[in-house]
Amino acid sequence: MKIYAVKIVDINEDKLLYLCSSIDLEKNKRIVKFIDKKDKIRTLIGDILVRIIIANELNINNECIIFDKNQYGKPYLKNYPKFHFNISHSGDFVVCAIDKNPIGIDIEKIKYIEYRDIAKRYFTMNESKYIIEKDLSAQLTRFYEIWTLKESYIKCIGQGLSIPLKSFSINMDKYKNIESIEDYENNRYFLKLLELDLNYKIAVCSLNKEILDNIDIIDQSDLINKYLKYNLD
Questions:
Q1: Each residue of 218-232: pLDDT tens digit?
Q2: Three-state secondary-structure class, residue 54
Q3: What proportions of the chain, in percent to the nearest 5, are helix, strand and coil?
Q4: Confidence class of residue 200 from pLDDT cuts 50, 70 and 90?
Q5: Running DSSP on this structure, what letter comes out for residue 174?
Q6: Is 35 helix (H, G, I), strand (E, B) or coil?
Q7: Strand duo 216-218 + 2-7: pairing
Q8: Phi-psi bin for 64: left (phi > 0), alpha (psi -120 to 50), beta?
Q9: Spatial CA neighbour of 67 closest among 6, 33, 23, 1
Q10: pLDDT tens digits, residue range 28-60?
């Protein structure tokens, strides 16, 4: 298992257009539709990041990297069933987790939302209790802990929102120990919160009991330069 993060910075329009033209057509069309430039950069960097990781891990050329999606829309690397990856982005960060088994990762920038209404609608009673039993100043942070953990589990399973959010519960003790989740096929999923930035929450879900604490931070400029070099080689 390896976990990576890139802090995004602005890219000038000419370079952005060039980089977008170098990725696959489907992803390029998706990026073009975004109005917010930051959305374009996040999506682009996510694609470049996973391509560089695949090239390094599997020693294959960029043009040989072919993605497909399962019936629920989760992307996977075609012809490499033992390589699993998952990407998430929010605010100024793009994160990616890889493993030999299915894996899910979610990052969310902490910003004020009507978290009580969302929790009432989508969270279990135990999850809601975990949030509101804390002082008001800490409740929003706890909400994002539960939210990212639930998202990471759903992304690991790879069945999207066909899994109702209230159909499983994230249970944590006061020491932040998180109970594993067993699905209907008796697979046991392990979850963990990671630290990257005080204004963000990151959660990872894996079939591996040992989830790494370490996040490999990659500089965006270095990532782009390496990607351009791969394309020229």
A1: 999 999 999 998 875
A2: helix
A3: 45, 25, 35
A4: very high
A5: T
A6: coil
A7: parallel
A8: alpha
A9: 23
A10: 888 988 999 999 999 999 999 999 999 999 998
Specify the pairing of strand 188-194 against strand 181-182: antiparallel
- In the structure encoding, which two tokens stand for residue 212, read together? 């790494």
Which DSSP category does 178 fall into? B
Q: What is the CATH classification number for the domain harbouring 199?
A: 3.90.470.20
Per the structure, the complete domain to which residue 63 belongs is given by 2-232
Please report, as a single letter, which amino acid is at residue 224. Answer: I
Cα distance between residue 157 and residue 143, in whole Å: 21
Q: Which two tokens stand for residue 84?
A: 């699993």
* Rounded distance between C-alpha atoms, residue 119 and residue 127, angstroms: 8
Residue (of 40, 13, 15) closest to 28 by Cα position:
40
Q: Select, from the ranges 45-49, 135-139, 182-186, the one with the highest average predicted confidence (pLDDT).
A: 45-49
Q: How many CB atoms lie within 10 A of CB 179?
A: 12
Into how many domains does the chain fold?
1
CA distance 155 to 4: 17
